[in-house]
Amino acid sequence: ADVADIPENAVLGVRKSTGERICLVNVGGRICALSDICSHQDFPLSEGYVLPTGELECVWHGARFDPCTGEARLLPARDPVPAYEVTIEQGRVFVGPRRGGDAAGR
Q1: pLDDT band, very low/low/confident/very high, at 106 (cuts 50, 70, 90)
Q2: How many CB atoms lie within 10 A of CB 33?
Q3: How many CB atoms lie within 10 A of CB 67?
Q4: Cα–Cα distance list, 14 to 27, 43, 70, 77, 85 (Å)
Q5: Does the global pTM surpass 0.85?
Q6: Local structure of 47: helix, strand or coil
Q7: In the chain, helix, strand, coil percent, each to 5?
Q8: What is the three-class DSSP state of 55?
Q9: Most C-beta atoms within 10 A of its C-beta, which of 36, 44, 67, 73?
Q10: How large is the greatest C-alpha to C-alpha distance in the chain, in angstroms?
């Protein structure tokens, strides 16, 4: 994706070359990447939105996550979602490997 495809405080669903669904989130100008699957009930997080607090809210049941770490912040989600390394090069967003310790089993 291009950085321009993700306005500030917006969300964009994409797929990695492996087919894995990724949710890109622009939090105040910082691009973060999470798995696009809510840890509560497998709903696409890319359908959600960024709250004024900077948290990503799943629209299905209201679970909230830190978009840069994947940490679950509000029930009904208890488990984090995997977060990924992000690199920006010449206005393009590149999603790297999962960060260590982020819900590796999901």
Answers
A1: very low
A2: 27
A3: 27
A4: 17, 14, 17, 22, 15
A5: yes
A6: helix
A7: 5, 40, 55
A8: coil
A9: 67
A10: 39
Closest C-alpha to 35, from 70, 86, 62: 70
Nearest Cα neighbor of 42 from 28, 25, 21, 24 is 21
Q: Give the HSE-up count for residue 92: Cα atoms under 13 Å, Cβ half-sphere.
A: 5
Helix (H) or strand (E) holding 88: strand 83-89
Find the DSSP H helices in 1-106: none
Alpha carbons within 13 A on the beta-carbon side of 1: 22
Q: Residue 73: what residue type?
A: R
Which residues sit opposite 3 in a β-bridge?
none
Q: Which residues contact 53 (CB under 8 A, 6 or more apart)?
A: none
Burial of 104 from C-beta contacts in 10 A (0-12 / 13-18 / 19+): exposed
Chain segment 8-41, per-residue pLDDT in tens: 999 999 999 889 999 999 999 999 999 999 999 9
